[in-house]
């Protein structure tokens, strides 16, 4: 892998609610804790806490709007997360191919 893994970033996207929030923000362009909580099965306070986690790792950034903050996805940081995920996926694919070749070799040896 070319870049070291960012454990905080992976932890942030590891939560299904936060992934759904990112999806909503990507499709809607931006949102507040209130607008997101209307579309998620969690409270506004829980959404605000999840947004705080996403903000700390740089996946979203907030702009104050009156009493609320409007959140948008940081596409550069999201691309970094996707690149890391792709890198890990490729490494595991290579490992699994090696294991498969070893298992096939053992099976052939047992048949001989």
Describe the structure in your own words.
The structure is a single chain. By secondary structure, the chain is mainly alpha-helical. The chain has one domain: Arc Repressor Mutant, subunit A (Orthogonal Bundle), CATH 1.10.10.10. It contains five helices and two strands, in the order ααααββα. The chain has helices spanning 7-13, 16-28, 33-37, 44-56, 75-111; strands at 60-65, 68-73. A two-stranded antiparallel ribbon has the order 1-2. A hairpin with a 2-residue loop joins strand 1 and strand 2.
Looking at this protein, list some descriptive labels.
Arc Repressor Mutant, subunit A, single chain, mainly alpha, 112 residues, elongated, two-stranded antiparallel ribbon
In whole angstroms, how far apart are the ends?
39 Å
Cα shape: elongated
What CATH first level would be assigned?
Mainly Alpha
Count of β-strands: 2
How many helices in DSSP terms? 5
Which fold name is given in CATH as the topology? Arc Repressor Mutant, subunit A
Mean pLDDT, all residues: 90
User: What profile does the largest beta sheet have?
Assistant: 2 strands, antiparallel
Unreliable stretches (pLDDT < 50, length at least 5) are none
Q: Output the strand order for the largest sheet.
A: 1-2
Strand content: 5-15%
List the helices and strands and how they pair.
Blueprint: H1 7-13, H2 16-28, H3 33-37, H4 44-56, E1 60-65, E2 68-73, H5 75-111
Antiparallel strand pairs: 1-2
Brief digest:
With 112 residues, the protein is mainly α. It has helices at 7-13, 16-28, 33-37, 44-56, 75-111; strands at residues 60-65, 68-73.
């Amino acid at each position: 892998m070319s870049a070291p893994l960012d454990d905080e970033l992976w932890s942030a996207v590891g939560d299904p609610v936060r992934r759904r929030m990112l999806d909503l923000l990507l499709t809607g362009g931006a949102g507040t804790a209130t607008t997101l909580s209307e579309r998620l099965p969690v409270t506004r306070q829980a959404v605000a806490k999840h947004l705080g986690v996403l903000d700390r790792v740089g996946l979203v950034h907030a702009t104050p709007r009156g009493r609320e903050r409007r959140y948008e996805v940081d596409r550069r940081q999201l691309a970094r997360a996707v690149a890391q995920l792709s890198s890990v996926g490729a490494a595991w694919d290579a490992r699994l191919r090696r294991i498969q070749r070893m298992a096939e070799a053992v099976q052939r040896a047992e048949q001989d």
